[in-house]
Design a protein that fits this description.
Number of helices of chain B: 17
Helix content of chain B: 55-70%
CATH topology of the largest domain in chain B: Cytochrome C Oxidase, Chain A
CATH class of the largest domain in chain A: Mainly Beta
Distance between the termini of chain A: 71 Å
Strand order of the largest sheet of chain B: 1-2
Oligomer: heterodimer
Number of strands of chain A: 10
CATH architecture of the largest domain in chain A: Sandwich
Shape of chain B: globular
Shape of chain A: elongated
Largest sheet of chain B: 2 strands, antiparallel
Radius of gyration of chain B: 26 Å
Largest interface: A-B, 119 and 122 residues
Strand content of chain B: under 5%
Number of strands of chain B: 2
Strand order of the largest sheet of chain A: 3-2-1-5-8
Strand content of chain A: 15-25%
Number of domains of chain A: 2
Order of helices and strands of chain A: HHHHHEEEEEEEEHEEHHH
Chain lengths: 339, 627
Amino acid sequence: MYGFLIAVGVLLLLSIIWMVYRIQTLVSVVKGSDKKIATGSNKVNAILFVLFLLGTGILMFWYSIKEFDNYQLPVASEHGVITDQLFWITMAVTGVVFLITHVLLFIFPYKYQYKESRKATFYPDNNKLEIIWTVVPGVVLAGLVISGWMAWSDITAPAPEKAHVIEIMGYQFAWDVRYAGKDNVLGDYDYRLTSAQNSHGVDFSDKNSIDDFPSPVVVIPKGEPVLFKIRARDVLHSVFAPHMRLKMDAVPGMPTRFWFVPTKTTAEMREELGNPEFNYEIACTEICGRGHNGMRKVIEVVEPAAYQKWLSEQKSFIQNNPALAKGLESDVKELAEIQ
Amino acid sequence: MATASVATHDTAHDHHDHEHHDNFVTKYIFSTDHKMIGKQFLVTGIFWAIIGGFLSILFRLQLGFPEMNLEFLRPLLGGWIDESGALDPTFYLALVTMHGTIMVFFVLTAGLSGTFSNFLIPLQIGARDMASGFMNMLSYWFFFMSSVIMFISLFIKTGPAGGGWVVYPPLSALEQAIPGSGLGMTLWLIAMTFFIASSLLGGINYITTVINLRTKGMSFSRLPLTIWAFFLTAVIGLLSFPVLFAAALLLVFDRSFGTSFYLSDIYIGGEALPNTGGSPVLYQHLFWFLGHPEVYIVLLPALGITSEVIATNSRKPIFGYKAMIISMLGITILSFIVWAHHMFVSGMNPFLGSIFMFLTLIIAVPSAVKVFNYLTTLWRGNLIFTPAMLFSIGLVSFFISGGLTGIFLGNSAIDIQLHDTYFVVAHFHLVMGSASFFGLLAGVYHWFPKMFGRMMDARLGYIHFWLTFVGVYMVFFPMHYIGIAGFPRRYYSWTNFEFTNMYTDLNMFVSVAAIITFSAQFIFLFNFFYSMYRGRKATLNPWRSNTLEWTTPINPGHGNWPGEIPTVYRWPYDYSKPGAPEDFIPQTVPLSATPESNLPHEQEQVKLEMEIMKEESEVLVANESKH
């Protein structure tokens, strides 16, 4: 029934198009307009360009202003404030160019539409103009690039030594988090050690790994540098924390990193937005298979004191599952159990 | 020199005499006539555009109406619709992958470059055919084979390739990771291999033809900008497609022969794979070494077509002919050294990111120059809005809108947030997808009379343009907003995250706009096929244009000109020249015939021209008497 209706609809549409087409062909033959260089439709098209300019222009401004709070994500990291600023500066510069060029592009068709009495101006070149509109965009772009480059250099500079180290490991289709523990050094790992009990493939014979601990949520302190050590164990993933303006691919076989300083606790952001349900999230932005759109991890930003308290309450991998220490040398084992 | 040219004329005559016994197969199927091959590329391209567009409608249904019962698609999609009537998420990924692959390679590379380079190069430079008609034919049939294989891959049980059109390993290398990486990916790689062979065969031909077969007087500084664009496009393709082949070949090794070029430290499906030492980032470098120039492979021909169409219909010379060529040359060179701006957050060294940010923003300068030159060409013109002209103006608009958002994305600091969000989707669909698509349509409307000897209906063209132009903006402009809001690409649904759990209304709007825009293309299809047989008969030079193709008969045979190939005496943009009686002077009119409109420096060239013509006629006379 459904298919039949669609077929009828399509048929109807086609016959209408057909009719309109035949009628207007006949009309144009009668009018002899097919012999003219420009018919009345030339004017119609010229006017439509102006209407398009006005219509879409109004629509764009109205929607951009109305929806500003919706599409402008709140920012919660130090570098995010800077990149947002760059974004809006670029928006202002390109916005001006966008408007000017489009006004010209759509006004010219109206203003210079075909008239039999007029002849177009023969104006093949003007080197001065060419130089101007090579140099001006060049200079403006140089300004944008240099400010972007300075921000980029700061963001990608090595993390401060005191940064809290957290490993985020992507796999199909979730993130696993490992904290470096008291020594703030992550233990070695080897992908061949990966198992159901040891999802990170941590090498527990490395002393640094003894105090490493897992967490279902990424808890980080406000105002202190945090270093994400990022890796993947099957295919490419990408850590995207939109409110932190943070994104870095997770690559199997090649650890990556991104450090940042969160500026607002989850509680503060909840209050600011008036949304008690709000959470900072991590999503995956590199296509990774069927569950690509479900790789969610929550980031909880807390006050530094609360963070220290939380840290001291965590139990290491080995404390959670003593079986992991099996096969380790006895002194290491002892150390692990005391921790 | 003079004798040489006489010799070519002679062979040309012979050639012409031979060509009246084409049968159906040699004329329509295994044709070596560049015009027929161009049409073959066009029709195949249109076929793929319908498929590619339709796939996008399928996934737009999912994005705009996630709750919708898609049961009615079961006859077509079978098991990819689950019991509850929802689209399978894996198949969703396959849809976006195939949409990208088809549109970028099969429609905008083969359909655009293949059609117009083939059709226009010999006609506009004054040649009988391509340098090698046979290679040209092979180029089409390699493309055809590639098409058949890619088409088959749509229907296999495990589905077509599903790792995104960039097919990054390890996802594309491991069948365990996604079913599309099995047979579907194998077929993808085979199809692309044929496609690359096709592109190379075509490209070598285009380059050779432009360099060697230009008619007398057709110097590089008198080439229409279309030819410059096709020429540079072919150069880019020739240098970058082999790198894609290398990338694909290494991927084949990793998939089938146990090598580790791209694979390292992988634990998947409960087992650790033996591969170590490979780098997925290596693939990305190789892929984007083609992938970025590819953007210009699809865009430059569209810009070339636009230059020609805008100049003709503004009745004005293109402003800054030389600046346009220099810009295209600049784009050609720079297009090879910006690839890593697709990889700012791929984990590559951030210093490399800085370098590529600088190079990327340099490429914006020649693009800006081109836009300003188009605007100045329109300024004080006498504009005739043929459908081709409308689509060209539309192209300039998309080129501006999409080009400006490139300035955000080329800035690595800003790109951190925007990378792989819908902002990117909006950006490249405008600047590369829609702009090139409009170039393709402008070309079809403009050269249809030359292709089929009939006119397309202008009024249907206007309706088609306005629906498509408004439609494209309604589809892609809203994507900027959801991109700024951080919506990631290639997501089956948005409900898993709080930050993306909004804008359902906007997504619905986009989907509706997409469906309307897609439907509007059927107006074009009707117009195209109907006009082919029943359209108004074309006149010799319907747009009153200067270029050489309009000096051929209305339905040119194989060999293009029944008599001698015309000689060229001037550049192709003498529109509305002061003093001239008409508002156009074709390239074949000698300067000596237009003393009233010659510029001072041209007046000096007249003397030289007269001498050459005199010499030429002497040789001809001598030649005649010998016979």
